[in-house]
Design a protein that fits this description.
single chain; alpha+beta; eleven-stranded antiparallel sheet; 21 helices
Length: 611
Amino acid sequence: MKRRYGAPARGTWPVLLLPVQTALMVGLGILVTGPAAGHWPFSAENRANQDLAERRAAPVTGVSEWFSALAATETVIGVTLLCIVALLVLPRVAWRTEALFLGASVAAQSAVFVVVTMFVERPRPAVPRLDGAPPTSSFPSGHVGASVALYGGLAVIALLRMRGPWRYAVSGALLLVPPAVGMSRIYRGMHFPTDVVGGLLNGAATLLVIGFALLYGRDSTKPAEPGKSARSADSTGSADSTGSAESAKPESSSSGACADSAATAGSDRPVLVVRHSLGCPDELADRVRAVLTARGYREQRWIPTSAERPCGALAEELAASPPALVVVCGGDGTLRACADVVAGTGIPLAVAPCGTGNLLARNLGLTLDPAGALDEALAGDSFGIDVGRVEGDGLAPTRFTVMAGAGFDAAMVRDASPWLKSRLGWAAYVLSALRHLGDPGMRLSIRIDGGRRHRRRARMVVIGNVGTLQGGLPLLPGARPDSGRLEVVLFDPRGVLGWFTAAGHLAARILRGRPPLRRAVPAQAGGHREAGGALEYFSATRVDIHCAVPQPREIDGDVVADGTRLTVAVEPGALRMFLPRAPSAPGGVPGPATAEDRTGRRPAAPAHQPR
């Protein structure tokens, strides 16, 4: 078994050292409060606490209160949960291991602390105390141990993940918090100095154990995102088109024949590049242009988009002169609009993902450096992927590549602040979701492949061509973009317990990682339920949804008019895309293309029939 980035896995056996750590801490506590209590320096601790209490001053008291609050139980729990969510949702690729490391460190330290206080009984210092004393032993300091686990854990993550001199500045600042907390606890009369030392030792030992179990052997330099070659990783840091052109030169590898073929085909017919001006600024456009030129596409026609025309004049350009390739520089909405035009024509499409969510790119295993993703895709092959075709009341027939849905998810997308989206990316959707947690559910009926109607109540319904959301959340773990089927989930948590059960179930999926890739599963007429019934899954080639009252609806992250009906059908293999590997190649290993895939590379494009 291998860890990510090629580091050998050590397993989680080091956590077995936690009982040893607990026993050592108990022994140290018994020593400090027993045989060693009458000997220096332990015998001088009472006097040290009394001297500090006699010299208290208002400014110092205020600062000590602030540092003590940084390690209060409520603060530690809140900051830990917030940081775990941030580690899972803010990076383009979820930092699951780091999130697990932080949560496990704080939890393990607390568990050791509780056990130690059961065996070691030490009263608080006999001085006026400025904080309320919890009913636990003074040894070890729980505040200090928790601060080491939390802020020390964040310092470790900063050292692993940040770049440049700031990594040391941030890590150093975080590492200063636990000693400051310790001094404040002594100053406020809550602990003896040896209690603080015990807390520091307990927290540091916990970080060592959990870090050895989860992080040991990982490269301290930032790894390339999954699927990103060293070449494209280098191109990420290039700020000029010359550097980008150099990074985009074809490799001498097994994909060289494909790249040479691309160059030859690219010289015969132009490439159409659909550009979302906000998602693809001038600097990125220069890099994309350099990649295409290096791959042999010297004749390029760039098509700008607008709010009224999300794929610009692509349909007219295709009708006038079928290109060798269509490149989409934008997010899922721009890609969906282009796929709606290109699907069924045989003209291959490639994507430089530069949107908010980039869900299709994530699910296809593309890197999220736009120019690097395009370069790797053009070095690969042309594969057919499915698209969904959706229509409904007030909704003209259109295609999607990722997901369509109604209810909670559509309301979340609709009400996400554009200002927050521009600054936080798709994490803005999380904040929008909080506003709709109390929304009532909807009553609906669902028909699978023309069968009988099933009446349900749900907070949302999602029909997906792919299954993984932002943060690596596999909402539809059975969805595959080349399965010839669509996966459906009804989400209906009942009460607070239902929400926690569903959240725990989905969080466990994130920590386990993506399940093994598999082909289409048979349709299940009645679906199957998970998470105590909060999630119900179906598999189908056609899905009919009818809601009792109009609901918010969305298609690939674009909000459409509210309505009561959604009818969705799959179009198997309708969209040809250049990808580094087959969509369902297990383990990220390039899968062998079928005969159709091989002959389909750079197919002769038929005359485009505008719909």
